[in-house]
Amino acid sequence: SNCAAENQVKFATCTLHSVALTSWNTHVQTVGHEAAYGMSWKTLMKMMTDKYCPRNEIRKLEMELWELKVKGTDLASYTQRFQELALLCRRMFSEEADKIEKYVGGLPDMIHGSVVASKPKMMQEAIEIATELMDKKVCTFAEREIASKRKFENTSRNTQSQQRQQSNKRQNTGRVYTAASGENK
User: Annotated region Disordered: where (predicted)?
Assistant: First the structure.
């Protein structure tokens, strides 16, 4: 996010409500204001996950993440769901490289190899490369479809034109025969 690291915990906890807000306020009273707001984002995420995400639910999410793949060319939905699941299933990725490998593993074959070959070092880099490649593929598909449609329309027009010409030739030939047979009489 665009939030400075030292303000992430403060910002996130300001959005809490109901039971989560009560629990946070109790935590602040217990450990003190400075300690509570001085914790790292990672620590807050672990604390919230431990409290509000039962282990069996996390396992289900891990299974979903394990099976997650891009559907068609909808990279944006895949990326968003991947990031949501990766936040909750953080124990699956001890290092950034593990997360990148899993993300790239869910990409379609048409861009997978190119993303791997680019050797992204950061998750955001992998996402940007994949997005750029997918956008190019989608544009290429659209251009081919338009070109194919134009070719079909031109072929169709040419066929219709040829049919009209042949029909006119038949009519003209018929007229010539009629005129010629009329001259012989």
Answer: 150-185
State the CB neighbour count (10 A cutoff) for residue 86: 19
Q: Average pLDDT, whole number, for the chain?
A: 85
CB contact set of 65 (below 8 Å; sequence gap of 6+): 82, 85, 86, 89, 92, 102
pLDDT digits (tens, 9 = 90+) for 99-108: 999 999 999 9
Residue 67 has, within 13 A of its CA and on its CB side, a CA count of: 5
Q: What length is written for the chain?
A: 185
Residue in the structure block whose two tokens are 């070959």: 117
Instruction: Give me the phi and psi of 30, to 5 degrees please.
Output: -75, -50
Same domain, 66 and 156: yes
Which residues lie closer than 8 Å to 114 by C-beta, 6 or more apart? 129, 133
What is the rounded CA–CA span in Å between residue 82 and residue 96?
A: 14
| DSSP of 23-71 | HHHHHHHHH-HHHHHHS-HHHHHHHHHHHHS-HHHHHHHHHHHHH----
Q: Are residues 57 and 36 in the same domain?
A: no
pLDDT over 80 (residue 67): yes
How far, in Å, CA of 103 to CA of 105, rounded? 5
